[in-house]
Every structure is written in C-alpha cells, then in structure tokens.
Amino acid sequence: KDVYAVIGSPIKHSKSPWIHTLFAEVTQEPVEYKAVLGNEQDFAGSVDAFRAEGGLGLNVTVPFKQDAFNYATEHSERAKRAGAVNTLVFREDGSVLADNTDGVGIVRDITKNHGFNIQGQRVLILGAGGAVRGILEPLLSEQPSAVVIANRTVSKAEELAQDFADLGSVSACGFVDVEGAFDLIINGTSASLSGELPPVPETVIQSSTVCYDMMYGAEMTVFNQWAQKQGASQVIDGLGMLVEQAAESFFIWRGVRPDTTPVLTALRDSLK
Ligand code: ATR
Q1: Its family (predicted)?
Q2: What value of ipTM does the predicted structure carry?
Q3: CB under 8 Å, gap of 24 or more: what pairs does 49-57 form?
Q4: Which CATH number fits domain 103-237: 3.40.50.720, 3.30.1330.60, 1.10.3720.10, 3.10.20.600?
Q5: Where does ligand 1 bind, in terms of residues with CB under 6 Å?
C-alpha cells in the first residue's frame, strides 16, 4: 500500500487517520494512513525519516504548519497566501509540493454541503489568526460583495485586510465596531475553546444569516448557540470543513475525490 500520514505534536487526538482510512475504503485506493508524532525541535528530521520509509505525503497540523511551508520546495497559490501548509506531496524527483486545503474545505462545506452561494454576499469573519489567514484566498475567490474581518487585536485584522486587498473588498475593525447585518458570519477565533463569545453587536444577525463556527464538538458551540438564539437561519460547525479539507488532500495525492457524505455522517455519530 502507499503510505501517507498526519504529523503533529500532540497527534493522538487527530481524526485524520480515521477519515483517510474511510476514504481509502470508499474509493478502493491502496492507501495506508498513519499518525506521526513530530519532533518539535526537528520537524525536517521527522519528515525526512517518514520519507526514508517510503511515505508519499503528509497532512500537517499544530504546531508544524509553518515549518511545513519552509520545508517545501514548491507552493500552491493558496498555500503562499496562507503562509501555512496542511498538505505535503513528496514527488519522485525529490521536490516537495506544499498546499493548504483548509480554505477549500470550508468553502466546499458551505457551498456544496449546505447549499449557500457566497457570491455577492456580505461576509463577517471573527478572528485574524492563522486559521482565518488560511481560508481567505478560497473564500474571496467565491466573490462575496464584501468581507469584514473583526478581531480582538484590531491591528492583526488590519494586516490581513491589507494582505488580501488585491483579491476583493476586505476591511477590518474591532468586535464592538462591526456595523450592519451580514449574510454569512464565520467564527474563526479560538474563543469557543474557553466558552467565550466575541462581543459583536446582535444586529449582525438577521433571519437569513448563516453562521459558521470553525470549531466543533459533541455539543453545539457557544457561538452557534448564541447565533441560533439571535435567529440565524442556519448554524454550522467545523466538522464538515475537517472532512472536506481531508478530501481535498486525498484528491491531491490520489487524483480521486472521495464521497464525503458517509464519512461526515459516521464522524458526527462518533462524537455523540
Ligand atoms: P488559530 O491558528 O486558531 O487561528 P491563532 O493564530 O492563535 O490561532 O489565532 C487565534 C484567534 O482567536 C485570534 O484572532 C485571537 O485574537 P487575538 O488576535 O486578539 O489574539 C482569537 N481569540 C483567542 N481567544 C479569544 C477570546 N477569548 N476572545 C476573542 N478572540 C479570541
């Protein structure tokens, strides 16, 4: 079998081996997918060892997404924009291709799985960290009418708005300064982890607003609970994004696109 893996530290909690093993079954591809605990002092050494054993590709998670960027010899446009990498391809000629499938993952979950067309819509993004940077290029290529990035540290939102200004209408502000209502709101802060809510005005949500929390869990996230209470038309968590970004990586490696629906259903059941 062809060997792939996810590398991170810690790595035990990763759902990628489970997801990719199901993809391999569904597509009948001869793929074996492992979990590799990376050496935080020597990412390159960990990757070299994996390649020496015949590994053909890696998914990369915390804290190595920037190390993976530096390790690679070629980068996709979206990986360059993200400044971080979640997928590596080891080619026969020794070159290493880097890609970032997170943004495509969330866009596909929103448009394909939830039937929401982003084109022409007003989008609010909460947060301005690595996770948000990673999704901006694919999101903007859907041509929303405007994207507002709101963050606790406003300067980080401003920096992102500047970095992506050539791709569309992107502006920045603090949470309490957000004005108007939005068609799509994406929570990309890690505030949910501590059960906190970004203090945006309730008026950002109207009855047609779709809310997306990039986090997920067995219970509805605090942000999605809040959004539902404000009357949002749909609240979505990040589980679909997780499965879709995995599917895109699988496609990059194998040239085959797995059906994500049964995998997402099984993963949802396993959270209960
Ligand atoms: P990630 O890779 O998940 O994006 P990150 O780069 O550390 O991690 O970014 C975390 C994001 O969540 C940032 O936008 C951060 O806000 P700051 O830039 O002001 O630090 C945001 N965040 C984290 N905890 C938060 C909280 N309790 N309330 C609001 N925003 C929070």
Answers
A1: Belongs to the shikimate dehydrogenase family.
A2: 0.97
A3: 50/5, 50/7, 51/90, 53/3, 54/3, 55/3, 55/4, 55/5, 55/90, 56/2, 56/3, 56/4, 56/89, 56/90, 56/253, 57/4, 57/87, 57/88, 57/89, 57/90, 57/249, 57/252, 57/253
A4: 3.40.50.720
A5: 127-131, 151-153, 156, 189-191, 194, 196, 198
